[in-house]
Write a structure and sequence with these properties.
0% of the residues lie in helices and 55% in strands. The model has no long low-confidence stretch (mean pLDDT 95). The protein contains no helices and eleven strands. The chain is an all-beta fold.
Length: 119
């Protein structure tokens, strides 16, 4: 069982920045992929950004150019740097990792961290 702990959420004004962190209980270098997802009130959970084991990244169109996903293998942590935040970025942000166990892939989720963008 992989344990994930997110941090870094909070209340910011439009145009400001935040950095989310997701600390894993295992080495992130062993994961097939890691990602940040978000869920706004009354909406489905959606992908924000992902990073594969080889370092390839993918972003939702709505965050391209503003969000950057990265990982620090030494700290077993994946980050989401968010800039130029907008009110529509308000959501609970969840960290997810995908890990091989034998021949099967398993997903593990963190508990989420609230990001609120409001003036």
């Amino acid at each position: 069982q992989v344990q994930l702990v997110e941090s870094g959420g909070g209340l910011v004004q439009p145009g400001e920045s935040l950095r989310l962190s997701c600390a894993a209980s295992e080495s992130v270098s062993t994961f097939a992929a890691m990602g940040w997802y978000r869920q706004a009130p009354g909406k489905e959970r959606e992908l924000a950004a992902t990073i594969t084991g080889s370092g390839s990244t993918n972003y939702a169109d709505s965050v391209k150019g503003r969000f950057t996903i990265s990982r620090d293998n030494a700290k077993n942590t994946v980050y989401l740097e968010m800039r130029s935040l907008k009110s529509e970025d308000t959501a609970v942000y969840y960290c997810k990792v995908r890990r091989w166990r034998g021949l099967s892939l398993y997903d593990y989720w963190g508990q989420g961290t609230q990001v609120t963008v409001s003036s």
